[in-house]
Amino acid sequence: MSLGMQTYTAAGAVIVFGPNVITGFAEDTFVEIEYESDAFEIRKGADGGVTRAQMMDLSGKVTLTLKGESLSNDALSSIAQMDRLLMAGVYPFMFVDGTGTTKATAAQAWIKKVPAVEFGKNPGNRKWELTLAQLNLNVGGTLPL
Q1: Which residues of the chain fall short of a pLDDT of 70?
Q2: CA angle centred on 115, ends 75 and 29, rounded to 5°
Q3: What are the structural domains, with CATH classification, of the chain?
Q4: Distance, CA of 135 to CA of 91 (rounded, Å)
Q5: Which of 20, 37, 130, 143 could lock 75 by a disulfide, CB 3.0 to 4.6 Å apart?
C-alpha cells in the first residue's frame, strides 16, 4: 500500500526558544537534537549473563547552526548574557517539522555554549549549543501529500 508522494521542506521547520522564533538557518544541517544518555546501559557477568539498566537521564542537547548574518544570533547572545549576569536564561524550547511528525520539546532549556566566531570571505555559520533539562522527542517521518 502506497502512502503517496512525500515532500520535505526545511522552510516548514519551526524552532522556538523562549520568546524567540529562530530564523536564519545555515544551508545544510541547521538543527541537531539528541538525548545526552543512552536509554539503557548493559552489564555483563562472567557467566555470560546480561542485565540492562534503564537510565533515567532524559536531558538532551540541541545544536542550532545559523548563518552568521542571522538576527537570531543577536537574540541568543542577549539570552546568554542575561543568563551569565542574572541567571535568567532558562526558557522553553520547541522544534516542529512542519512537513512531518518529528517534534522536540522541553520546558527548561538554556544556552550551554556560545559559538566561536569566524569571519572570512563569507560571514560563516554560528553553532549554538543548548541543554534541555528533560527532552521529549518524537522522531517521525514526512507526511504524504
Answers
A1: 1-3, 145
A2: 90
A3: 11-138 (2.30.110)
A4: 13
A5: 20
